[in-house]
Amino acid sequence: MIISETLTPSEVANRVRPYVANKKVGAISLTVDEARIRLQNDYWRIPICPSSEPEPLFPYYEALADLEDEIQTGEGIKVTIASGDPLE
After folding, report:
1. Strand blocks (E) in the chain
2. Is the pLDDT of residue 4 over 70?
C-alpha cells in the first residue's frame, strides 16, 4: 500500500485515469475531474464525471464501486470514488 500523503492530486489522477478510461456504462464514458481530487481521512476522493446523465442509476453506481475496487487493488492507494456532474 502506498502512503497516500506522498502523492499529489495530479499523480493520483495519472494513476487513476487508465482505469477510468477503460470503464464504460452502456454508451456512457467516464472522466476524472482532476481539479476536484483531494485527500480526505487518508483516502483520495476522486470525482468521476459521466459523459451524460446515467439512466438507470444502478448500473452506473455499480460501475463506480467496481472502479474503486480495481484502483485500490491495482494501484495500492486508498480511494473513494464520487460521482461528479455529467459533462453534458
Report:
1. 24-25, 28-32, 38-40, 43-50, 79-83
2. no
- The CATH fold assigned to 4-83 is GMP Synthetase; Chain A, domain 3 (3.30.300)
Please name the residue that has the C-alpha cell 500523503.
5
pTM of the entire predicted model = 0.87
Residue 22 CB-half CA count within 13 A = 9
To the nearest 10 degrees (0 to 180), the angle between helices 57-75 and 9-21 is 120
Query: Which residue from 78, 75, 73, 80 is spatially nearest to 48, judged by alpha carbons?
Result: 80
- Region of 47 (left: φ > 0; alpha: ψ -120 to 50; beta: rest) is beta
